[in-house]
Amino acid sequence: MNSIIRFRDRVNADEPFVRYKTLVGFETILPQQWEDEDRDFQKLEEFRTGEAERYIDAITAENETEWFAFIERCAETKSNDGATFLIFTKLLTNLACRKPETTKRLLTSASLDLLKFLTAILDGLYLGDRTSWRQCIEEHCQRRRI
Prior knowledge:
Helix content is 69%, strand content 0%. By secondary structure, the protein is mostly helical. The protein has one domain (2-143). Helix 3 (41-58) packs parallel to helix 5 (86-98), helix 5 (86-98) crosses helix 6 and helix 5 packs parallel to helix 8. The chain is elongated, with a radius of gyration of 17 Å. It starts with a helix and ends with a helix.
């Protein structure tokens, strides 16, 4: 048991890994669940959504390159179950709504994996900044990337 706890603590000290498992996956185990085995889906989803909002707050012009690489890593995840991406999709929608200029820069080099989430991104742009929404649609149509 001590080995398991040391392993758990070691992987949970890896911030990108904790971010990843917060955003991607349906039945992820979060650090607080090791002490409290509460399986209240609503409570866990609220926590994960709150963390996603905190991640959006953390994205700045100075660190967006690292965040873009992380977002691309999440998008690379292979799954045929949409539930895998519930929180990640919320992050993309809310990022686009709250930070349209950042999102436009993200889309300029978006991989095909990330473009699979284009609907969520465009939804956020539409809700937050319809000018950016229109520009992104026009640019992607011109590039024939959608």
